Amino acid sequence: MNLTHIRLLVADFRSCFRFYRDVLGFKATFGKEDEVYADFDAGSVTLALFDRKIMAEAVQTACLPSAAKSQDRAALILGVEDFDSSYQQLKKKGVSFITEPTSRTEWGIRVAHFRDPDGNLLEIYSALKT
To answer: What's this model's pTM, rounded to 2 decimal places?
Structure first.
């Protein structure tokens, strides 16, 4: 068995498509922003976006609430070579970080967190220089 995709089920497909393409710079390999499904080249795995309502219909959960306040249950972790440069580039593209850049010596990384337009948690990090 191989993990081939990470699929985010999103309420605002168009905004999320633009965010992953235009802000994070992932190349769309399938789908367009005015559709309901897209794949992005994210390195060794494909990042997919899919309209949440359609997936709920497919798995017969459309009758359940679509959103509830809760703690995050997943995060997309993005490794970067130059943390400070990547952080500044994302800020220039309008990303609002929810944590400041922090050197986590106990984790061995420099890290900061932000959210996509649908509220999914993302992290950028790079290894601390030893």
So the answer is: 0.88
